UniProtKB/TrEMBL annotation:
Organism, scientific name: Desulfonema limicola
GO MF: precorrin-4 C11-methyltransferase activity
Keywords assigned by UniProt, alphabetized: Cobalamin biosynthesis, Methyltransferase, S-adenosyl-L-methionine, Transferase
GO process annotations (BP): cobalamin biosynthetic process; methylation
Protein's recorded name: Precorrin-4 C(11)-methyltransferase
Annotated family: Belongs to the precorrin methyltransferase family.
Family annotation (Gene3D superfamilies): Cobalt-precorrin-4 Transmethylase, Domain 1 (3.40.1010.10), Methyltransferase, Cobalt-precorrin-4 Transmethylase, Domain 2 (3.30.950.10)
Length: 279
């Protein structure tokens, strides 16, 4: 009997077409898909073949759905565990893979698109503008799931980098209070709900107005809190340019057109030291 590894697949933020090609192929070949139904839209199951089993694990505990994964794997079936976003971020896969290892069940992980990147795409922004911020922090506030003291929200917010706060919308008052002390009450912020899904909603606001916005719009779940100076339209319009495409900036594949010291044109012939064929 052929033994197939259990596949942990990142479903992306919701849009069925934002799953990776590799993830889509895994679903098309699966005999059984166990999906986190509280977060993963059923539309993702459209990629499965007729006869594939679908199990919603929303009401199940760890031992229940892991035992199903092991049982079906050992019977020769191709098993997919479908997670929202990317499995490596708040995916709780470590506890699942630990159980699989105990039973000598092989597994592979196929990455997905996380909500922070789906939200940035929807807003048409870049989290890392030159000379504004070059860092993106993905975090959550401490709640029912504790956060190490060294990673408390206020400590991380002190960097004033771009920040995406997951799993914290129910504690928006506390989040806003902390962010206001660090970023300032007028710092641009956004709340992205159900990113890439049909009912997607994205609201632009300021840090101090976050609680009022969340309450007014009755936002309770599947929402990401984003705070960053890059959300300022004036900065976006200022067109902060990177050096990557600057004609005076040399790199491995392009010589500068203008010598930065002598201020005269130089050879711009492309080099190709790695031997790749140019199109």
């Amino acid at each position: 009997m052929t033994s197939y590894p259990v596949l942990f697949v990142g479903a992306g933020p919701g849009d069925p077409e934002l799953i990776t090609v590799k993830g889509q192929k895994a679903l098309q070949e699966a005999d059984l898909v166990i999906y986190a139904g509280s977060l993963v839209p059923q539309a993702l199951l459209q990629w499965t073949k007729p006869g594939c089993g679908h199990i919603n694990s929303a009401s199940m505990h760890l031992e229940e759905f892991v035992s199903l994964m092991i049982k079906n794997h050992k019977s020769g079936k191709k098993v997919v565990r479908l997670h929202t976003g990317d499995p490596s971020l708040y995916g709780a896969i470590a506890e699942q893979t630990a159980e699989l290892k105990k039973h000598d069940v092989p597994f592979n992980v196929i990455p997905g698109v996380t909500a922070a990147f789906g939200a940035a795409a929807a807003m048409g922004i870049e989290y890392t503008l030159p000379e504004i911020t070059q860092t993106l922090i993905l975090t959550r506030i401490s709640g029912r799931t504790p956060v190490p003291e060294s990673e408390n929200l206020e400590s991380l917010a002190a960097h004033k980098a771009s920040m995406a706060v997951y799993l914290s919308i129910s504690m928006i008052d506390r989040v806003a209070e902390i962010l206001e002390r660090t970023y300032g009450k007028d710092c641009p912020a956004a709340v992205a709900c159900c990113v890439s899904q049909p009912d997607e909603r994205i609201f632009h606001t300021t840090v101090s107005e976050l609680p009022a916005l969340v309450k007014k719009e009755n936002i309770r779940k599947q929402a990401l809190i984003i705070v960053s100076r890059v959300l300022d339209d004036k900065l976006q319009e200022a067109n902060q340019k990177s050096r990557l495409y600057d004609k005076s900036f040399s790199h491995e594949y392009r010589n500068s057109r203008v010598d930065p010291v002598r201020q005269f044109p130089v050879n711009n012939l492309l080099s190709n030291p790695k031997g790749f064929k140019n199109p």
